Amino acid sequence: MRRAVGNDDGLARQALATLCSGYWYPLYAFFRRSGKSPHDAEDLTQGFFARLLEKDLLATVDPAKGKLRTFLLSCARHYLADEHDRASAQKRGAGLVSSFDAVQAEERYAIEPVDDMTPDRLFQRRWALTLLDQTLQALAAEYTAQGKANLFNALRPFLGFGTGAVKSYEELKKELGVPIGTLKNYVFRMRERWRALLLQRVGETLDEPTPDQIRAELSELIGCV
Questions:
Q1: H or E, element range at 120
Q2: Residues 109-117, mean pLDDT to the nearest whole number
Q3: Which residues 6+ apart lie within 8 Å of 94 measured at CB?
């Protein structure tokens, strides 16, 4: 988080661009659940990140609190109430979220649960799911780089979170030609590596956190899913 508030404008903009590309959807979902049209939600999302850069708002994060998601949600509430920024969002924010895909955004929003989940709650849930997805992608990339993509795909269901049915160890033994004891060890190591990636990514969204604070934040995020 500190990289996005440094004195080097180039590095700060690059860090903010990384933040935008990783976490634009939770904000889009927040604006849509707040009653905004797809077009307005897109403008608001783009304009919101532009305002962060323009006003250097990340520099105002309270180190004592240090939760990026809490800070962004608070800023989003204020931004939503600002008529002037809403009117000029597209003009000032266009292109900042380079990965923004309006069609994809609305397709994702269309499958959100139709329930009484508040905009704040939906933001929190989507923030948590985004972080989980990012770390799973990073884990998959590591296995692929090691030539173990098939092993990752076979064991991925053991990590949970929206995958298909978990096959039995006996089935996987026949499928992969690996002893059950070895399979169990593979699963253990995969879970441990994923947890390490999760803790690392969570730590990047906090300001100078302690290990206990990182674990507490991860636990809170898992509770949002």
A1: helix 119-145
A2: 79
A3: 46
Q: Which residue carries 């049209």 as its tokens?
A: 37
Reported pTM: 0.78
Q: Which of 9-23, 27-41, 188-202 is predicted least confidently?
A: 9-23
Check: CB of residue 201 under 8 Å from CB of residue 218: no
Distance (Å, rounded) from C-alpha 188 to C-alpha 192?
6
d(CA 15, CA 18): 5
CA nearest to 80, candidates 126, 41, 117 = 41
Tens-digit pLDDT profile for residues 30-84: 999 999 999 899 889 888 888 877 766 666 555 555 688 888 899 899 899 886 5
Check whether 107 has a pLDDT greater than 90: no
- pLDDT, position 183: 96
Query: In the prediction, which pLDDT does 22 show?
Result: 78
Reference 46, options 118, 104, 98, 96; nearest CA is 96
Q: Which residues of 185-224 are buried (b: 16+ CB within 10 A; e: fewer)?
A: ebbeebeeebeebbbebbbbbbbebeeebbbebbeebeeb
Length of the chain, in residues: 225
Unique residue bearing structure tokens 């080097």: 8
Q: Beta partners for 206?
A: 67
Q: Would you state the torsion angle of the CA atoms of residues 172, 178, 180, 183, taken in this order, to the nearest 10 degrees?
A: -80
196-201-206 Cα angle (round to 5): 120
The torsion angles phi and psi of 139, rounded to 5 degrees, stand at -65, -45
Give backbone dihedrals phi and psi of 67, rounded to 5 degrees, phi first: -100, 115
